[in-house]
């Protein structure tokens, strides 16, 4: 989605440069200027427009991390119990 926003900004900036509403850059730097301007415009747009998706991914990732921590704690408990039983038996 972020790439789509960047491509849309790139097309829009290129169109505005072609029309003459946005300066074309200095000398042969036209392509670099267009890409840089598109990056500067697309970054805040992505931040605002993709907020919902970012929050959903954060929720999914935090759920997976919590599950992994629970499994790790359960494994540690099993190892401790086995170690304690072996010490008591010897």
Summarize the structure.
With 90 residues, the protein is mostly helical. The chain is built from three helices and no strands.
Topology of this protein?
Blueprint: H1 2-19, H2 30-49, H3 51-89
Helix pairs in contact: 1-2
Please give a structural write-up.
The chain is mainly alpha-helical and 90 residues long. The protein is 86% helix and 0% strand. It has 3 helices and no strands. The chain has helices at 2-19, 30-49, 51-89. Helix 1 crosses helix 2. The relative contact order is 0.10.
Number of strands: 0
Q: Spans of 5+ residues with little confidence (pLDDT < 50)?
A: none
Fraction in helix: over 70%
Query: What does the average pLDDT come to?
Result: 83
Secondary-structure content class: mainly alpha
Q: Tell me the fraction of residues in β-strands, as a range.
A: under 5%
Number of helices: 3
Main beta sheet strand tally, sense and closure: none
- The helix/strand series, from N terminus to C terminus, equals HHH
Global geometry? rod-shaped
Radius of gyration: 27 Å
Comma- or semicolon-separated keywords:
about 90 residues, mainly alpha, rod-shaped
């Amino acid at each position: 989605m972020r790439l789509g926003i960047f491509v849309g900004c790139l097309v829009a900036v290129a169109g505005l440069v072609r029309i003459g509403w946005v300066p074309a850059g200095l000398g042969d730097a036209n392509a670099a200027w267009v890409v840089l301007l598109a990056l500067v415009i697309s970054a805040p747009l992505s931040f605002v427009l993709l907020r919902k998706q970012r929050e959903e991914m954060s929720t999914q990732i935090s759920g997976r991390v919590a599950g992994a921590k629970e499994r790790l704690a359960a494994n540690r408990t099993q190892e401790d119990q086995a170690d304690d039983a072996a010490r008591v038996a010897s």
